[in-house]
Amino acid sequence: MLSILIPTYDYNCYSLVSELYNQCVKLGFPFEIIVQDDASHSELNVENLKITSLKNCYFHINSKNLGRGKNINSLAEKASFNWLLLLDCDVFPKHNYFIEKYFECIEKKDFNVFFGGICYKPEKPKENEMLRWIYGIKREAIPSKERQQNPYKSALTSNLLIKKELFSAIQFDENITKYGYEDLLFIKNLKEKSIAIQHIENEGYHLNLETSIIYLGKIKASLQNLSMLYKIDKSKIDESKIVTAYNFLEKTNTTSIVSFLFIKLEKRLEKHLLSNNPKLRILDIYKLGYFCMLNEK
Fold this sequence. Notes:
The chain is an alpha/beta fold. The chain is built from twelve helices and ten strands.
């Protein structure tokens, strides 16, 4: 029936697995939960090993780092059942009927892909975690009716139910080993194959808020990845807003100007983004400027 797949890296997944396990047991259908650490060599894996004490739950450790996409592909190969629920390790069910709602989706047999959504705790986090929280609240925590209006744009693979045979036919691009944009390519493949995504209200809380410094570093790493993909094959990532904006600047011969201005203003922009009240429009400017700078090299 259902294989729940959780890729992880240096994170304690035991409480998440326990919650999912209890929900599955109550429903009484065949299931398994497979967690796979991507060679983090973390001390937290001592806690993760407790997962194996739960029936039909497994914990694996990769001998070498694969990257998120390849790690999920590896998990899918291990899966025994015909439905896969992909969950990020730092996502936690918002409701105690989280699995039941996905079970209802499976029973209806009307779609092959479902996205439940992501949400955030309403309480403000620490001042040094505001950037990730504000981005999540305003850009990721979207009601299902709004998500369904543009289903491919707003879907993520951090809380995604998908038929195994469909996943196996698409998979994540294993050329992407660094952080960022593996979701975009996976969802684009679904779109190109005209595979519908049904959006439902079945959110998981994103719990692991990085500090703004760490999150900004991840943004830069993802843009480096995007720049690499852009130089290899522009068509692969033409769904990206950054790429759309960059292509416009290219047509107007202004990418070098934006790159120059970014270099001059980079520290000031970062100071704002690391403050306790960062604006997402400033983040958008920062991302576009950084991407222009990368492509000018």
